[in-house]
Every structure is written in C-alpha cells, then in structure tokens.
Amino acid sequence: MISEKALIARLSHKQSCIVEFANNRFLLDASGTIFWPDFDLLIFSDLHFEKGSFLSQFANPLPRMDTRKTLDNMQKVLATYQPKCVVCLGDSFHDGNAISRMETSNIQLLNSMVGSVQNWQWVLGNHDPEIPKEIAGESFVSLKQHNILLVHEPEDLKKINEEQASTQTITAQIIGHFHPKMRTKQSGHSMSGKCFIVANDVLLMPAFGQYTGGLSVDDKAIKNIITEKPAQFLLYGQKIFNIR
C-alpha cells in the first residue's frame, strides 16, 4: 500500500484527491485510476491493448506503440500505490485477436505485473468477452466488493440484489465503458481531458489506454444513467481538478 508520506505528497500536488462515494472513501488519481484504501485495491479501466495494431489493419496511420505505453504507465501507477489487489474494469484488450498481435515482450511484461500483486482480477467487457489464456489472473463478468459492484457496463442493482444470496446489499457501482471526457474554463483558461464522474450511486471511470477517445459528459448515453448533477473530476496536466 502507498506510504502516508507518498500519499500526502500526491494530495498536496493535486495528483490525487479523496472522494466519498456510497459510504466509502476512495482516492481518484490523476493517472485515471482509483485506489480503495480499505481493501488495498487499485482499479484500472479500458486499457484497450492493441488498439493501434487493430486500426493499422484498416490503413490507419497511428503508430503501433500504444500497448507498450499503456503498460509503462500501468507500471508507474503500480509502483506508486503498491496494491495488494488490482481490478481492470473491462475492455482491457481491444478485440478478440489482440493477443495474436501483441509482442511477446509485452505479454511477458503484463504477466510480470499480474504476478507482482497478490490478486489480479479482469472484469470482462464488450470488446473482450474473454481474457486470452496466455494472460495470468482471474476473470469475472462483474465483481462485488463490500456494497459496490465493479463492472464494465451499468447493471440493474435491484435485480442483482434480488438474485444474490449475500446479506450485503449492493448500493452503487463503479463503471468503465463510457470513457468520459470534458471541457471547461477555469480563471479564463480552457482545459479539456478525460474525467471521473461521481454521482450518488454511479461512478464513471476514464479510460486508461493510450489510444482511447471518449464521450462528453453531456452525451445522452451518460445522461441516461446519471440523472442528478454529479461531481466531475478533470484530468489535466498530470493533475486532477474538482470541477463544480
């Protein structure tokens, strides 16, 4: 787990911020990740490994270095937080054939990272309905942690609570999939970038992958699942800003 000294430094430099969500305390990080101290748990979302090589099949001029850059960025976050558990919230691989295009060195690096933590869990997404057998870790459709569902796309919590045998009621969910982004102006300065959206029972994560676009916070798809006015946390210049 991250040391108290390192945490204070990140908070003071606006590299992370503390939020209360569904009666739990989280650290939203400027890297686009979430750290849940109570469970020593680090959450990534939407890595989209091998998106560059996928697009290059259709004469897209993007360089095919996105997977390595994403892995390098993951290593930095892992080194900072030193978590016991990691959850990746779906669309970790851009398509079903991504592993066949992934360089051997990148597969080895990824498996090394997976092996460096006690528990690494892959949540399945619409781009990766299964995790390649070459990759270590466990995979799940969704995960329940305390009173929160960790999932790629929104789920019906009422239905889940009716079906589950556990006495712990799921009251909120942390979701990937939407890649939220925003644009704002602060003190006359325009800023735009990926963002977190935190509502009463829904927290949307930004995409972590190198070549991931996104949906505006004003997009209908996002407004359909968040009806109240949420808090928005913009990632800009390697810092995180709470936009009121």
Strands, helices and their partners?
Blueprint: H1 4-12, E1 16-21, E2 24-29, E3 34-36, E4 41-44, H2 51-56, H3 66-81, E5 85-89, H4 98-101, H5 104-115, E6 119-123, E7 138-140, E8 143-145, E9 148-151, H6 157-163, E10 172-175, E11 180-186, E12 189-198, E13 202-204, E14 215-216, H7 220-223, E15 231-236, E16 239-243
Helix pairs in contact: 3-5
Q: How many beta-strand runs?
A: 16
Low-confidence stretches: none
Main structural class: alpha/beta
Helix content: 10-25%
CATH class: Alpha Beta
Biggest beta sheet attributes: 9 strands, mixed
Named CATH architecture: 4-Layer Sandwich
Count of distinct structural domains: 1
CATH topology description: Purple Acid Phosphatase, chain A, domain 2
Gross morphology:
globular
> What is the CA-based Rg, rounded?
17 Å
* Overall residue-averaged pLDDT value: 94
N-to-C series of helices and strands: HEEEEHHEHHEEEEHEEEEEHEE
Taken as a percent bin, the fraction of beta residues is 25-35%
Query: What's the number of helices?
Result: 7
Q: Could you give the distance between the termini?
A: 30 Å
Organism: Glaciecola nitratireducens (strain JCM 12485 / KCTC 12276 / FR1064)
Domain Calcineurin-like phosphoesterase: 41-185
InterPro entries: Calcineurin-like_PHP_lpxH (IPR024654), Metallo-depent_PP-like (IPR029052), PdeM-like (IPR026336), Pesterase_MJ0037-like (IPR024173)
Pfam families: Metallophos_2
Question: In short, what is this structure?
Answer:
With 244 residues, this protein is α/β, with parallel strands linked by helices. The protein has helices at residues 4-12, 51-56, 66-81, 98-101, 104-115, 157-163, 220-223; strands at 16-21, 24-29, 34-36, 41-44, 85-89, 119-123, 138-140, 143-145, 148-151, 172-175, 180-186, 189-198, 202-204, 215-216, 231-236, 239-243.
